[in-house]
Amino acid sequence: MSKAPEEILGDLIRIDSTNPPGNETAVALYLKKLFSEAGINSRIIEPEEGRGSFIARLGSGEKKLLFLAHTDVVPAGDGWDFEPFSGEVKNGVVHGRGALDCKDLVAAQVSAALQLLEEKFPFTGELIIAATADEERGGRFGVGYLAAEMPELLKADYAVNEGADQPITVNGKMVYFLQVGEKGAAWCRLKTRGRAGHGSIPTLADNAVVRMARAVDQLGRYHPETILIPEVEKLMHSLADLCAIEIRDLSPGMIDRLLDELPLEKAFIEALRSMTRMT
User: Is the whole model's pTM more than 0.85, yes or no?
Assistant: First the structure.
């Protein structure tokens, strides 16, 4: 009988894969052992020593589903009530670094796959399990490497991954989210030029540092315009329906007012707000 997901999660937490430096290969070896015991061959792709990603494939067929999660975690820091790499269970809850980001998803996906094998599930397509390295630092040794060098390993019709936020409860109903897009980033370089001057006559100088400070201050005060894409508008209507709020006007000027009226947690409200503007 395969391990329960909470057991797998505890084991994963006890493997310190803090990034940097990563040490994700230790996690990959643990997963490889689990699948080997279930009779499944798997691979560890290691572009650099210690930075391994785990890949397993179940079933066969034209359609492919990818289970994707990452095995590295951010540094634990201080202020823990439990040892961050203990995987301790208390009151039915597994505690430790990675319990929410993202070893819980690794454990859930691996456990589901192993249970399907145990039940001799009749696969009509292929299920790909990818537990990858280096998500917390940009993915250069994980998904980024696989996509650039070995894209065939990740190619699938559908993927299940983190990113669409945690499920929430609205009027007693569990609400799960699907992510349909990803914000990008536009990097720019800001330069200021000044005019040198002597300390005895500073009023004739134009300090470039002061100019830069003014520019950064203006950027900090900038309030981007509200932009409502169709996918976010549909989400707003769906949430309002669950909250028994009728929406007649979803013009940009009404978005913040609507968000303030939704009886949801503040953190989630702010996440929604971020979907409606450049951040």
Answer: no
